[in-house]
Amino acid sequence: MKQAMALALAAAMALSLAGCGAPASQSASQPASVSQPESASQPASASQAESAPASLPAPAGESYFDANGIPVLDEPSDLEVHAVAYDMEDSTIQRTVPAQVSARVVVGDAEKEGYKKVALYVTVTCSDFAYNEEGGLDEDVAYNSGVYDLYTGRALPTRSTTGDTAYDYTTTVEVDGTSYDISYSKNIQWMVLPLDSGEVYRRCNQNWVFEVPDAYDGLVYCAVDPLSYDPSTYSEEIDESEHYAMDLLNDESVAADTTVFFRFGTDIPA
């Protein structure tokens, strides 16, 4: 299994763009939380790893999404949302464009005892672009996504990304008094795909790799369907403030009815 996982990770492409965070509003009535490490870019220390329990119970009880009536698909699925195309010279000139999302997951053993490695590969293909008379592009594009905890509904800390970039982060999700350490990396790659018809596609490859306890099954990916994009919200700093799924769905810049959530990484390695 470890060899298969390594081959899958090596074969995967790195990946995405701006707008990967959640809205800045905070829900004050959450029963559980995601605590933050001292450093946003450092993995757990050796002493923390050594003291981590080898086995943890699976989270139990009603999920945040069920409690709030938010549909969540049981597994990754091909779907269609939108991205926002905006003029490079005047970002207030915007339009939504179709975004085809496909995802696959590989689950295998992690080096840390009692933990599994979950790789999520997402490809987002945005259509309805064309070269200008000079053979260039007048518009940039923003695709919005995130990862949430199923049980607390909180977004895992992330940051805006543009072009080809990557970052690592470690945090803790606490559910009913049990703490689940979660480490993850996100790699982004954007590319331009011209067609013979003259139409141009913009493709975003996202590669998420998580290391979570074997029993933890609360990873939820969100493909946001945006109505608009505010470039001023772009920041390369990790956003450690609290954001919940309902905060996102209550944001006026998001089409709540067509935003899609799906679970992934629920398997336990053999």
Task: Name the helicity range.
Answer: under 10%
Order of helices and strands: HEHHEEEEEEEEEHE
Q: On the 0-100 scale, what is the average pLDDT?
A: 83
Radius of gyration: 19 Å
| N/C terminus separation | 8 Å
Strand content: 35-45%
Biggest sheet features: 8 strands, antiparallel
Q: Are there runs of 5+ residues with pLDDT below 50, and where?
A: 1-53
User: Can you list the strand order of the major beta sheet?
Assistant: 1-7-8-9-4-3-2-5
Number of helices: 4
- Note the overall shape: globular
**Which class best fits the helix and strand makeup?**
mainly beta
- Strands, total number: 11
In short:
The chain has 270 residues and is mainly β. The chain contains four helices and eleven strands, in the order αβααβββββββββαβ.
Fold and architecture overview:
By secondary structure, the chain is mainly beta. It is 9% helix and 39% strand. It has 4 helices and 11 strands; from the N terminus they run αβααβββββββββαβ. The protein has an 8-stranded antiparallel sheet. The chain has a 3-stranded antiparallel sheet with strand order 6-10-11, with no helix packed on it. Strand 7 (165-175) and strand 8 (178-194) form a beta hairpin. The longest helix is centred in the N-terminal third of the chain and has 10 residues, at 2-11. The radius of gyration is 19 Å and the shape is globular. It starts with a helix and ends in a 7-residue tail after the last strand. Mean pLDDT is 83; it is low at 1-53.
